[in-house]
Amino acid sequence: MLCQNCGKNEANIRYTQIINGIKKEIALCSDCAKKLGMDNLELPFNLNSFLGDFFNDYAETEFMPMLQTNELKCKNCGMTYDEFINTGVFGCSQCYDVFSNPIDSLLKNLHGTSKHIGRLPNGKAEKITVEADSGDKEKNKESDKKKMLERDLEKAIKEERYEDAAKIRDELKEMNK
Amino acid sequence: MNWYLQNGKDSDVIISSRVRLSRNIEGIPFVSKSKEGQLSAINEKLKSIVPALGYGLKYINLTDIDDLNKEVLVEKHLISPEFAKSKNPYTAIIINDEENICIQVNEEDHIKIQVFSSGLDVENLMNLAIEIDQKLEDLIPYSVSKKYGYLTACPTNVGTGLKISVLAHLPALSLTGNIRKVLNAVNNLGMSIRGLYGEGSKVEGDIYQISNNQTLGVTEKEITKNLKLISQKIIEQERLARKFLAKKGEELEDKVYRDYGVLSNARKLSEEEAQELLSSVKLGTDLGIIKELNDSKISKLILETKSANVQVKVGKKLSVYEQDIERANIVKQIIKED
Ligand SMILES: [Zn+2]
Ligand SMILES: [Zn+2]
Questions:
Q1: Which of A153, B105, B154, B321 has the fewest other C-beta atoms within 10 Å?
Q2: Which chain A residue has its CA at the smallest distance from B181's CA?
Q3: Closest CB from B42, B146, B194 relative to A42
Q4: What is the value of ipTM here, to two decimals?
Q5: How far apart are CA B230 and CA B220, in angstroms?
Q6: What is the three-class DSSP state of B193?
């Protein structure tokens, strides 16, 4: 059997992992095993490079023959499929949607599923805007900060965190000078 | 008192626990694709909300910490080595005096909430991390999707964004040659276990890190429960191996006392040698053979004999040779302390 990573050398190391009851086996040559840090079980394998190769393999298998992932690009941050493979990290939250098709298979491999069932935030927080009008920017920032501090102060008093409350009060005093 | 000097539960085997939550801010690309203005806005925003979080947290820009002190933070496992080397000028940590909370700002993700304790204490840590997360989510709009949960730069963290890890001291499993079996078993349970490496290729001080792989399609509660169960299994196995070793009483007593002898009398100690001797001396202390030391002294010795810690204690950069001499002095001092 040929190495599943490079496809060139004879595979002589097998690595087994069980995720959610599904057994996965991957056969590697000793060069690739070393490269991926899998020659020694005590070593963690480099997940990023491993991910990239795995992802590549997936796009090439017959399970997804129509997938032209190579041409996918995230309009929001400019991340391409190739770049993701090389770095193992996404550029922004929209990448998850742009690459959703191959991502689902990748996530199933990594986590055994592609659906979140844990906590979610309450969604109360206000959006953070980065680009403000340059003229009012400083002023806006100042009054935003004041509003926020006033809110924090109220909260700190309510929660009886008097030490924090005193700190916030000092900061407000400083701003009103 | 700093958390790593405190006595924790099951600390004969589990040195420390850590819970980490990865979060990103809605509408801003992840750190690697963020523009300078965006990174600086994140930095400002987080700085402004620190007083509202409580816990005595302080905001420190990484640019205000010199290289040696950054290395100390790495040696305490408070920040990642990559983060310490980051060229991004808008990186920061939000940390308290006890150092049991350390939030990394603009690491791989915008926000990495981290909480620590000595010993095995994952449930309390989980509750603390969620408490901090809930304060933050009132003030910061997180990047989430219904389907994928909390969105993270690396797909290995997506979903809950939760990684729990414990550091386990497994000298008896190593000495009895059973460590490989444990490593295989844990890896097959969907958790990862790996040795902490120093300069060489040997596992430093028989310390292993156990953490969850799965972050998506699993609840925070399940991850916590699984990690606790696996840790307890490992504790059980290590204690069995220790009992087995203790049967050959003289052999073990001879080994740990010899190592204690070298540790306390050497004039020169390399970092690697110190960690190795300390592993054996900790085993001897945990088994009640060595009576001259205690848990918190050993924690102190393990930390303060690391390279950057030695240099910060002396107050200047030292050559490796000078470090080895100072390290031996520091060991003697700590052993003498009451
Ligand atoms: Zn190969
Ligand atoms: Zn993107």
A1: B321
A2: A41
A3: B194
A4: 0.82
A5: 16
A6: strand
d(Cα B74, Cα B97) in Å, to the nearest integer? 16
Residue B36's pLDDT is what? 93
Residue B157's closest CA among B80, B258, B272? B80
Contact by Cβ (8 Å): B271, B327? yes
Q: How far apart are CA B16 and CA B13, in angstroms?
A: 9
| Nearest Cα residue to A130 out of B143, B105, B44, B93 | B44
Contacts of B100 (CB under 8 A, 6+ apart): B2, B3, B115, B116, B117
Angle value at C-alpha A138, between A132 and A139, nearest 5 degrees: 100
CA distance B150 to chain A (A): 7
Q: What 3-state DSSP class applies to A75?
A: coil
What are the residues whose beta carbon lies below 5 Å from ligand 1 (ion)?
Answer: A 3, 5-6, 9, 29, 32
Residues 6+ apart with CB under 8 A from B17: B8, B116, B117, B118, B119, B120, B121, B122, B125, B164, B165, B166, B167
Query: What's the token pair of residue B280?
Result: 């054996």
Which residue, among A96, A15, A78, has the nearest Cα to B24 in the 3D structure? A96
CA distance B18 to B196: 15
Two tokens, residue A84: 């993701």
Answer yes or no: is pLDDT of B198 > 60: no
Mapping DSSP to helix (H, G, I), strand (E, B) and coil, where does residue A21 land? coil
CA distance linking residue A108 with residue B31, whole number of Å: 25
Partner residue facing B108 (CB), from A19, A89, A163:
A89
Q: What distance, in Å, lies between the first and last C-alpha atoms of chain B?
A: 16
Residue A68: the pLDDT is 46
**Between A65 and B261, residue with greater pLDDT:** B261
